Structures are given as C-alpha cells and as structure tokens.
Amino acid sequence: MVRPADDALFWHTVNQGPTTEKGTALSGQAVMEMTVETLTDAVEVAVLSPTHTIGDVESACEEAAREHLAAVCVAPYVVGRASRALRGTHMAICGAVGYPFGYADGLSKCREVGACLEAGVRA
Hints:
By secondary structure, this protein is mainly alpha-helical. The longest helix is centred in the middle third of the chain and has 14 residues, at 54-67. It has helices at residues 6-16, 28-32, 36-40, 54-67, 79-85, 106-119, and strands spanning 44-47, 71-74, 92-95. Helices cover 46% and strands 10% of the residues. It has a 3-stranded parallel sheet, with helices on one face. The radius of gyration is 16 Å and the shape is globular.
C-alpha cells in the first residue's frame, strides 16, 4: 500500500483545509501529528472500474483488512461478496448506488439501496 508523503499532507493542509468529522477545521499542526493508523482509519478503497473482476474485489478486501482501512466501496452486485470477505472486521462496506452517472430514477435507486442493505452494506 502506498503511504502519503509528508509533502502530500502539507499540500492537503494548505489547499484542502482538512476538517474533523463534525466539520471543524484542523490546524496544519494537527494534521502533521496524525499517525499512519489514524490516517488509514479514514481511508476507503474503491473497486469501481468498469473492468474490475471478482478477484479485484477480493484482493481489495484483503488489502483493506490487512491495512485496517475504514471501508471498501464496491458495485452493488458484489456487496454480498465483500461483506463475506470482511466478516469479523470493523470495516464499513459501501455500495455505489447509481454509479457512475446517477441517471436512474429515485425509485430505482431506492431498490438498489435496499438490495445493498440486504446483501450486507454496513457503516
């Protein structure tokens, strides 16, 4: 897994204005004091390439669990597989409803959300 460099953290601090979960701005000093563990707890891995395979999903789940990432984001049709692969971990599983363009109507998206919930999406 690629770890962010110190200058990447600085760039984020200067240009992005990092915030806490509640939206409170963090100082540059607070960002620089973060550990690898606190950063990985805020990172998710996404497997949303139109050419991804089940193997890609399984590999991403293994890597995310090994690195203690926060979540795995996958296409709705593989939420169940990701849920099984991450059983017993603290990780969230995100189903990318309406991805990539969101052109479906609201009812279709609600059905897709329901299918993701049944398959094992979790926060």
